[in-house]
Design a protein that fits this description.
phosphoribosylglycinamide formyltransferase activity, alpha/beta, EC 2.1.2.2, Rossmann fold, transferase, GART, binds 5-O-phosphono-beta-D-ribofuranosylamine, Phosphoribosylglycinamide formyltransferase
Length: 203
């Protein structure tokens, strides 16, 4: 299982994936991290883990298709078999999805299908839900849609700020993303995949 990670920002989910691999909780390797934002923290993290890094600045491409062609080329050059979008803030094209059929995954900070798109945590607070969470799903063309692989729920507590709720959700993201990759790629039973990873926070 050779992963390519697409990330735009902080990269804490990338870090969680690396930690799970290091602990042999996820039998995989990350062959390349692709980032669209110069200076994103995920690039520093990738350097620390000595993972090849490729910056594909979307501002230097004329279209989504052109960017995705470059992404596909880069993934192929690094012999990637599965793609994990981890805080990837660009809409993807059908070309990318078709290049890795059923092998492009995403994580989103809501219990999909509620609150797709930007500011999902704010959307949840605005709606007044008492349960929030995160979802790992197969990627389809519509933003934050596609078959769900794994979810985790967290309570919304009285007076929660976006930052507080986001932090509670992220703890769960870091558990379920490696587990969901294992489930999708290796067909691990959900119970075992979660049990392997549920012991302690991964990062
Ligand atoms: C996560 O909340 C993820 O659900 C969303 O973007 C955020 C990325 O966080 N898609 P990080 O960059 O992995 O820390």
């Amino acid at each position: 299982l050779s992963l390519g990670v697409l990330a735009s920002g902080n990269g804490s989910n990338f870090e969680a994936i690396m930690t799970a691999i290091e602990r042999s909780a996820l039998k995989a390797q990350v062959n390349v991290v692709i980032c669209n934002n110069p200076g994103a923290k995920v690039m520093e993290r990738a350097e620390r883990w000595q993972i090849p890094r490729v910056l594909l600045n979307h501002r230097e491409f004329t279209s989504r298709e052109a960017l995705d062609q470059a992404i596909i080329r880069t993934l192929n050059q690094h012999d990637v078999t599965w793609v994990a979008m981890a805080g990837w803030m660009r809409r993807v094209t059908q070309q990318l999805i078709d290049a890795f059929p059923d092998r492009v995954l995403n994580i989103h900070p809501s219990l999909l299908p509620s609150f797709p798109g930007l500011h999902a945590v704010q959307q949840a607070l605005d709606a007044g839900v008492t349960l929030a969470g995160c979802t790992v799903h197969h990627v389809e063309l519509a933003v934050d849609s596609g078959p769900i692989i794994m979810q985790a729920a967290v309570p919304v507590l009285a007076g929660d700020t976006v930052e507080q709720l986001q932090a509670r959700i992220q703890v769960q993201e870091h558990h379920i993303y490696p587990a969901a990759i294992a489930l999708a790629a290796h067909g691990d039973s959900r119970k075992n995949a979660v049990a392997d990873l549920a012991g302690e926070p991964l990062c």
